[in-house]
Amino acid sequence: MRKISPRELRRLSQRMGLNLEEIENVEEVIIKLPSKELVINNPKVSVMSFKGEKIFQVMGEVSERERSDEIKEEKIEIPEEDVQLVAAQTGVSLEEARKALEETQGDLAQAIILLNARKSTG
Q1: What is the pTM of this model?
Q2: In this predicted model, which residue has the larger pLDDT, 2 or 28?
Q3: Domains of the chain and CATH, by start
């Protein structure tokens, strides 16, 4: 089989509808697996477009690290009126109403349903 020069390869690719380009200034590529992450430092990343699909080619220094799922739950502010409303509707203490609102991310209806369900099973 004869060797194809990069120029010939580009022309052939264009005729077939392939478009290949390199992404510049990529610092890091992370592939997340259930238990770990593969980190590719100083990567060379190329993107090939073919019939509406994109294929990424990544080359670089690979290292592994444990996966750290840093799900940062923002503490939402719950208005005192909401706490009082939920407590009045469900007949629970203000503290229980506040906890239910925190669990439901401030959703009044869900907090009331949650507390009523707990009262009926408890």
Answers
A1: 0.45
A2: 28
A3: 6-66 (2.20.70.30), 80-121 (1.10.8)
